Amino acid sequence: MPTGVRIDVSPEQIEALTYNLEGLIPAIAQDHETRDVLMMAWMNAESLRMTFDQGRMVYWSRSRQELWRKGDTSGDRQFVREAYFDCDADTLLFLVEQEGDGACHTGARSCFFRQFGTDAVETV
Amino acid sequence: MPTGVRIDVSPEQIEALTYNLEGLIPAIAQDHETRDVLMMAWMNAESLRMTFDQGRMVYWSRSRQELWRKGDTSGDRQFVREAYFDCDADTLLFLVEQEGDGACHTGARSCFFRQFGTDAVETV
Question: Which residue in chain A has the smallest CA separation from B105?
Fold first, then answer.
């Protein structure tokens, strides 16, 4: 059974991150085993706090304008293993254990299932 | 010597992506060998077109408000190997060959070199 990791992060650390004008920060979810990039979605400070507390990925749904605890509806939960932030402190990276079929609402394992180009040409 | 791949993408495909109000779309760069996520930055339609044409990552610098062909100053170029877009067509993923020291202006290989938490606790 999948498990998540609760991560102790101070409110100050969460506040110190750089959010956009809507109070959001992009969060990349990467499969901790296959290392496939599964999806990118957005968090606000509250969903980030919940993510750290619960060891499960909680996003902010921009389309529904509400907290979105991944998998509550679909069953395809994401359990947190490790969490990083970048040099500008404006993007997050989570290594996750993906439960169920996958991260994507289409049923695909990764949301990045469509590839550009079919006639790639080697260049220098 | 690193090489990039030129990818044939029609102007219609580039226009069909979803850009934000500033005309930008997030682009994740992942090392094609180590599969580490190196960085996330932004592209506009023009920089994306250049990226596909030249086989090198070209971003839009939000701070400088100009095209930013990664590595022209630092020497740490990123050569494109594969390119994907997600289910919502509002995020891009590139598998790249990272030249030189790394992707980060700090000298780190990945921009995500800082990890949250030191007292991670297993939970269910």
Answer: A87
